[in-house]
Amino acid sequence: MSALRISGGRIHDPANGVDGEVRDLCVEHGRVVADVGPEARQIDARGMVVLPGGVDIHAHIAGPKVTAARKLSPDDRRDDPLERTELLRSGTGGLVPSTFATGYRYSLLGYTTVVEAAAPPLAARHVLSELSDTPMIDKAFLLLMGNNQVIFELIREGDPQRLRDAIGWWLAATGGYGVKLVNPGGVELWRQRNAAVESIDDDVKGFGVTPRQVLEAIGGAVHELGLPHPVHIHANNLGLPGNADTTLATMRTLAGVETHFAHIQFHSYGGQPGGQPRSRAAEILDHLHAHPEVTVDVGQVMFGEAMTMTADGGLSARLRDLTSGKWINHDTEVETGCGIVPYTYAESSYVHSLQWGIGLELFLLAKNPWQVMLSTDHPNGGSFLSYPKLIRLLMDHSFREDQLGRANQRAIRRTALLDGLDREYTLNEIAIITRAAPARRLGLTHKGHLGVGADADVTIYNDLADREEMFATPRYVLKGGELVVEDGELRQVEDGVLLSARAPYDPEVEQVLEPLFGDRYTVAFQHYPVHDPALREPARIVEAGR
Ligand SMILES: [Zn+2]
Q1: Predicted pLDDT of residue 192
Q2: What is the pLDDT of residues 38-64, one digit of tens each?
């Protein structure tokens, strides 16, 4: 790979304390370097803004639920075809793009790393196949463990070392990057008796564990193992009025443990079950401000079409009751549920406008942007293609006022958004919530910054007053030092690597797991791990340990 000098751009690299400094940035052999020779190619970036490549810490782009959503929405996809060109594969876009389209469109937005946030370990082959088909970006996936019946047994036995060994084994067996808990214990309860969790001390019938025990055991194990990314939590009772109680109870039981809470907007509601929600964003933020070991991504709702897809099968059943339209609900034996429901967020709706407003409250009232990262929980709150509009909402107070005026006013009056909340995010703060903070939280030391030795994943923007237009159309995108996007068009296709995490484990744990698998899975234990190297390469392994 040839050397390149990006000259005269305004660099925002908050991880290295650089806030708008005008200087050259040099890359060679896929990395940022201190300098390059005079023969290096040059990009004239004078007047432009230079950021690290975007890092999406929570999205849904690969695996059986994503495939199911594609099957459910042929109309949406038919309306957005991608033509084959000499460089590009054909594909379909819409809310749930095909694998190739997903990679292309993230790259066109200046994103270079994306995490698939909810993969059933049993479906790792499927997830890996689709991720290896997804070009342009580096990618990782998180393993669903919060409703796994074998893991419930290990938790009930109460041997923390054995649980740590099992998590290490699961990462090795699948190529996963981290551990995800979705409605811990609650999916199993819903599958058994169509009931929601009332508190994190509910008994998960037949397993002798509670959501609190699952949270503490797995959260503690991930912490002790020192995985590069802490336990990633979709708390119980997503979307239900009054769920802030559950969210805060979950946060308190894990106080002192490194944790990442996903799409926290959906978990910040006051009110009574069955009634109308109200905002409790401020209380959630109070906890964050007192607990630097906690981070969140917002899961912002954007008005318009969305596709809800979740391992939280009970949530999908509730959403389906609201929409009465088509849906899918399917089970992954032993491990998790899955539901897909197409959904529309309407400005006229009290609840949808409140959700939208709570997301903005979380961004705008947060004291420390390193703790509050940008996501729409793609495609649950809206497509990743709406990130530029969301960035404009955060950076442009007058635009936000205009959009506030279109939303349901009864809902907006019940947020803090009309209380003189005129904060405008700076470019450095945007660089934190879309790059530096997610990379740091994922333990990706080569990403999210532009220091010497960093991956040469770089996005260069024209400095436009319309921040939506600016972030929708980067002038240049570099992936691993290669110029892949120029003026809104893909110039070169790169594969990207699979990011996997590895933790040491005692192989004797297989003697424990094999009979438990034999009792429950229809898949033979020896056929469960993904041995096919073609599915797991090219890979970059991140070792556990602090
Ligand atoms: Zn999600």
Answers
A1: 85
A2: 999 999 999 999 999 999 999 999 999
Predicted local confidence at residue 356, as pLDDT: 98
- The pLDDT value recorded for residue 546 is 57
Give the distance (Å) from ligand 1 centre to CA of residue 58: 6
- Return the higher-pLDDT residue of 195 and 127: 127
- Has residue 126 got a pLDDT over 70? yes
Residue 420, burial from CB neighbour count under 10 angstroms (0-12, 13-18, 19+):
exposed
Alpha carbon distance 206, 441 (integer Å): 35
Where residue 324 falls among pLDDT bands split at 50, 70, 90? confident
Cβ(500)–Cβ(536) under 8 Å? yes
Q: How far is the CA of 60 from the centre of ligand 1 (A)?
A: 6
- The alpha-helical segments, DSSP class H, found in 259-385 are 281-290, 313-323, 350-365
Q: For residues 401 and 398, what is the distance between their CA atoms, to the nearest angstrom?
A: 5
**Amino acid symbol at 202:** D
DSSP 78-100: HTSEE---SSS--EE-SSS--HH
Tokens representing 107 are 């790259």
Q: Evaluate the omega torsion of the peptide bond into residue 474 and state whether it is cis, within 30 degrees of 0.
A: no
Q: How far apart are CA 262 and CA 534, in angstroms?
A: 31
CA of 35 to the centre of ligand 1 (A): 40
Long-range contact list for 253-256, CB < 8 A, 24+ apart? Answer: 253/200, 253/212, 253/215, 253/216, 254/215, 254/216, 254/219, 255/291, 255/293, 256/293
Alpha-carbon span 151 to 374, nearest angstrom: 31
Q: Where are the domains of the chain?
A: 51-490
How far does the centroid of ligand 1 lie from the alpha carbon of residue 345, in Å?
Answer: 17
- Mark out the alpha helices in 27-113 (DSSP H runs): 64-72, 74-78, 99-108
CB 297 within 8 A of CB 57: yes
DSSP lists the bridge partners of residue 115 as: 140
Rg over CA atoms, the chain = 22
Whether 448 contacts 438, CB under 8 Å? yes
* CA of 103 relative to ligand 1 center, distance in Å: 18
Contact, 298 vs 359, CB < 8 A? Answer: yes
Which of 531, 538, 534 shows the shortest CA–CA distance to 174?
A: 531
Ligand 1 centroid – CA 264 distance (Å): 10
Task: Judge whether 516 and 153 are in contact, CB under 8 Å.
Answer: yes
pLDDT at 254 over 60: yes
Q: Are 448 and 52 in contact (CB under 8 A)?
A: yes
Mind listing the pLDDT tens digit for each residue in 145-160?
Answer: 999 999 999 999 999 9
How many other CB atoms are found less than 10 A from the CB of residue 528? 17
Give residue 419's pLDDT: 85
CB 164 within 8 A of CB 132: no
Answer whether 41's CB lies under 8 Å from 5's CB. yes
Name the region of 232 (left: φ>0; alpha: ψ -120 to 50; beta: rest): beta
3-state secondary structure of 425: coil
